Amino acid sequence: MIQKISKSLLFILFGCVLFLQHTASAHEADWGSAPHFSDQQEFIQYIIECNKNLQSEIAVVFDDMYVDEDELFDIAPIWAGNITLVNYDGRDSYVTGSFTHTPGERVAYAYLNGDTSFLEDDEIQLYNEAVDIVNEANAQPTLLRTELLLHDILADRITYFTEPTVAYLAPYSAASGAILDGQANCQGYSDAFIMLARMCGIDANRINGHAGGGRHTWSVVYLDGNSYFVDVTFDDASFHMNDIDFTDHIYFNVPRDVISGSHSWDWAVEPPGLQEYPDENYYYTTSEYDRTHGKYFGMYASTAEDALQRIADNVVSNGWRFSYAMCPYDDEYNDANFSNSYLLNDLLPYDGWYSTMNINTCGNYMFFTTDTHH
């Protein structure tokens, strides 16, 4: 939920903080060389490229349209800064902006350009920690496994930061709080994931929208010509089963068809080529499941009965304790006790099995997570 205190102070967004600062760039803008845009979506993509290159100031012109600077700031994928409508001449809008880049953006840029000379001391520490993670991730046999390892490392290392006091919130809205302190809000999760993904050669950005009843920030990755959403915050829901913390994967390379059941966003910030339906890059529908015998990825089933039967087969055949399955929503099976009893019935021919189950629903789908053991 956004509470606007005043422009030039701060926004509190569902546990995410943005500090705003005025800039003198309006007086220095070279409008003759400023890029022109015909809609806000073009502008958002321009801001993304500016962030990647650590560009700190912009001057742009919106042709044949009036823009509201507050609305523009709300959707812009920036961590801290200011966007100002300098002039509207009755036809075009002249806009300036000044941005402060996240520690994650700065570390990723330093790594990719081989130059750490501009990093602060705490950013050097973050850089060194990030390099260790990236080296481990890059040793994975596929790019999807690399990305999955980054997702799971962050979910394992970070605890969601819920401190309501603004004075203590800012450090945890960036990768530094997430990686060095192990605490972050949604911006911190996203900044850390984007930093590591870029360092591993995966094109990644942030997106602002709504989820969980308030403002929220998550990530975008670009794979095989399509874009996908990744929300490590929502996958790190910290649900317990047999005293073991689970990392979920519903929001790993999640397509529109699934995430639209829980998240919403402005059309202007939607990434180009957003994948509509579960495909080869989604956690539950990738063929990586077959290649890894279910050890790292989840499975898709056409019915709830089939999902539970396949979990039972997976447990017996492969011996993996934890299983993840997705299927179309079925109200009868949206009861963990009922579905767990069904699973145990499938395991009756094999003595001594116990199972604990968690069920999540999102959009038109349901997701089983099971801990099955002797």
Task: Please give a structural write-up.
- The chain is of the alpha+beta class and 374 residues long.
- It has three domains: 2-100, Translation Initiation Factor IF3 (2-Layer Sandwich), CATH 3.30.110; 103-269, C8orf32 fold; 288-373, Vaccinia Virus protein VP39 (Rossmann fold), CATH 3.40.50.
- 34% of the residues lie in helices and 26% in strands.
- The chain contains 13 helices and 19 strands.
- The protein has helices spanning 25-28, 40-52, 69-75, 103-113, 121-138, 143-157, 175-181, 186-199, 232-235, 256-259, 288-291, 304-318, 336-346, and strands at residues 2-4, 10-13, 16-19, 36-37, 57-62, 80-88, 93-100, 159-160, 183-184, 203-211, 214-223, 226-230, 240-241, 244-245, 263-264, 299-300, 322-328, 354-362, 365-373.
- The strands form six sheets. A four-stranded mixed β-sheet has the order 4-5-7-6, with helices on one face. The protein has a four-stranded antiparallel β-sheet with strand order 12-11-10-15, with helices on one face. A four-stranded mixed β-sheet has the order 16-17-19-18, covered by helices on one side.
- Helix 5 (121-138) crosses helix 7 (175-181), helix 6 runs antiparallel to helix 8 (186-199) and helix 7 packs across helix 8 (186-199).
- Mean pLDDT is 87; it is low at 1-26.
Helices and strands in order, then pairings?
Elements: E1 2-4, E2 10-13, E3 16-19, H1 25-28, E4 36-37, H2 40-52, E5 57-62, H3 69-75, E6 80-88, E7 93-100, H4 103-113, H5 121-138, H6 143-157, E8 159-160, H7 175-181, E9 183-184, H8 186-199, E10 203-211, E11 214-223, E12 226-230, H9 232-235, E13 240-241, E14 244-245, H10 256-259, E15 263-264, H11 288-291, E16 299-300, H12 304-318, E17 322-328, H13 336-346, E18 354-362, E19 365-373
Parallel strand pairs: 4-5, 8-9, 16-17
Antiparallel strand pairs: 1-2, 2-3, 5-7, 6-7, 10-11, 10-15, 11-12, 13-14, 17-19, 18-19
Helix pairs in contact: 4-5, 4-8, 5-6, 5-7, 5-8, 6-8, 7-8, 12-13
